[in-house]
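Can't attach files on this board, so I'm pasting raw text. These are the components:
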Amino acid sequence: MLQIRSFVFALLIAVSALAGLSAPVLAQNQSDLRSLINELAKGRYDDTERQIEAIAATGEEAAVPALQALGSNDLMARKSDGAVFIVKKKSGGYQLIDPLTGDVAGEAGRRDMERIKINNRLRRAIQSALGELTLMSKNPDRRRQAAEQVFKARDTEAIETIDAALDAETDPGIATLLREARAAAVLNSDASEADKIAAVGVIKARGDQEARAILAATADSSANSGQTALHDAATRAQSHVEQILAAWNAAQNVWYGLSLGSVLLLAAIGLAITFGVMGVINMAHGEMVMIGAYTTFMVQEVIRNSAPWLFDASLAIALPLAFLIAGAVGVALERFVIRFLYGRPLETLLATWGISLILQQAVRTIFGANNREVGTPSWMSGLTEVGGLTITYNRLAIIIFSLVVFGVLITVLKSTRFGLYTRAVTQNRRMASSMGIRTPWVDAMTFGLGSGIAGIAGVALSQIDNVSPNLGQSYIIDSFMVVVFGGVGNLWGTLVGAMTLGVVNKFLEPYAGAVLAKILLLVFIILFIQKRPRGLFALKGRAVEA
Amino acid sequence: MATGIATGMNRLRRTIGGAAVAGMMATSITAGFTTGAAAQEETIKVGILHSLSGTMAISETTLKDAMLMLIEEQNKKGGLLGKKLEPVVVDPASDWPLFAEKARELISVDKVAAVFGCWTSVSRKSVLPVFEELDSILFYPVQYEGEESQRNVFYTGAAPNQQAIPAVDYLMNEEGVKRWVLAGTDYVYPRTTNKILEAYLKSKGVADEDIMINYTPFGHSDWQTIVSDIKTFGSAGKKTAVVSTINGDANVPFYKELANQGIKAEDIPVVAFSVGEEELAGLDTSPLVGHLAAWNYFQSVDTDANAEFIDAWHAFTKDEERVTNDPMEAHYIGFNMWVKAVEKAGTTDPDAVIDAMVGVSVPNLTGGYSTMMPNHHITKPVLIGEIQDDGQFQTVYETSGLVPGDAWSDFLPDSKDLISDWRAPMSCGNFNVATGKCGGKGE
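---
Top answer:
Structure tokens for the assembled complex are below.
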């Protein structure tokens, strides 16, 4: 019993002695680190880069906030004494934060501080340094990110750090990443040929574009240094990876095609109603799309100024508004202009074109000729990789959205009373009128529906295109093309037409280039229309000849 | 509308003729306004020939405003030769032939002393014969492809050696780029610039397979395939960069796609020659930080002259958010040069002013002086900037001295022997030093 107590006592003493010893050691490191950080502000880009490497070499995780701030342009040096701080903007100046402890360290005026400038090379150095410093972080997401950064950096000096991290790593996914990062660094080092060949195997298993890049570089360098075995291995691995990539590439093209098709569908679907169902050549259709896009801009502007926390919902709020506003413009257009011109397509075309110019110039006068910034909600930014497929969230959202709009529209036309009226009026106006349907009202509402849908399309298109007065013009030709190709008067034709044109375009583009692909597509449609003048899905029966 | 369904196609065919008529009507509607409130006293008229409607309005409207501001300021200082300056604004509506008509109207009807205008090369080419025939003066403020030097035109924007070549040098030396994507919109400026760059890169030992050239139509909006091609091209184990001559409107979707596909400036930097502060104003730039642009001026340049200019601009437009850009600075330089040359000549007579222009030196906004050279191009510094998250550029490189604009590129076989000198006795825009005769390629 006594023995145990004295043992505990001894242990306590030992621990406290250790603590006493390590405190000054820590302080020593802190002051070293601080002087390293202060050095960041001195010299040219080259000097700063060396300082970043020196900080990475200390392995101190305490330096991470400073490096992150440097990367986001928030690290500044005080002009009076050269001390470096992380800064936060506030009115009239900056709040200073100690780069190591994170404590508030006073304030400074705007003129008292000088930003530490960085360029792309420094940004790369910072990324790789951050990767090395956070490889052992407790947060697995942070570790995963770190492993990826280290993989990209291919820093030979990081091999030891990676090994240490590998020993401690418990997550198998991150461990794989670390092994790949190690292999990438080994291939960059002067390790033995056998080690490098083993590393080639690891990289080959990764099988993506980055792997191809590393293998290609290895094949080049080994050919120069006469390491034939390594050269063979790298070349074989490279062609293996390229085969995999080629297969994925075809799938990727289909995806791009569907994505382009969904954009075409969105732009054309409103026109499929006004032109396809009602037979009005509406050259102002594109401007309805533009109105929808500007509505999105206005909604976001209001949200930014008064309720920033709503930003992620901005598109959802803009959708009904865009539908109503564009729809209202459409109804007004029909009531005041188009209804006087029914049965006179030439005049309709000229009048609606004039209106499209008036709308464009009106928007230019109100909002200015410049592009307006429409932000992307966070849930629509970024991408995910499915095998070798890169799927960006905004494109995915647009594909789904276009199909939903299509589904809703079909339902409205097929299963509601209003849809029944619309079809009745367009098929036989006199008969519908004698049955007691108010045909002028149906005309106005149908035109409003088509325009409203165009407005909704504008909300989606604001995510991928310019929000400028010219937005509509770039879609009007494509929209007519889709509707005519798909078969006038048939919504399903519009769907199939849009997707076909999208996919064909995207398969042509890699071989023919964007300019020629577009021309080829037009030639194809002209030939197709010669063969089948009524498009893909022609309506049959008496209505056609009426 | 009783005939209803499926007759649209026939109608479309019948109305093709109508479309042409409508097009003509459209241009004449948008074209016809001129601000020409005739003043009582005698004034010196200055023509402003920038599109205020149509596709190019996005870029050119700003330049019209900038010119109005410069003229207003000059009038506050007492005008020119004791007379007030009077701006005459016309709208050529982004319609190239209309540029020529409007230029003719400015010179022969309004009798302007000089014209400041044009943006696209095709609009400049369309007005050239008019200025030659009626012997007037045009100041052209936009970076262009070179291969031209005309007696009646003063080029205050950058020639390729004042923008493209230094940018490529920077990427090669500072970022170690070995593989190049030359991406542009399909028209004369990108095609000529890329031809020059291709020749230049090859002269620096870049292999054929390390250069990828890609053209897209105007207003191209679906960049998925091209961006993914660039990604693939960049994964060949060599540092890759994109040199972009993509025109105005197509840039926003291009940069959005880059950001979406996760291509960061640290991996594949894009250096652009047509993207300035104005173009970035329609974009969230946080995913684009680090991509580059080469110009002769950035709004972020820290000089007193620039701060003054920006303040004046904000006061004139009554909008603190309005940005300034490179072509605005070019007009600033061009306008001041013209003022100085008119004062030197003591008259606004075009021939006298054209002769007086060469050698005129005025301060630019980047803290130095720009001089008009005998080839009617000016000396400028070249700045390379990286995009920041506030939509501004941060200068990361600046040429040590001023770079004189070279009208005829040394890297094209057709033009390497040509020089331009509009001073007597040579007075030639395309003197061939090999044959010793005036009149090689070009007009």
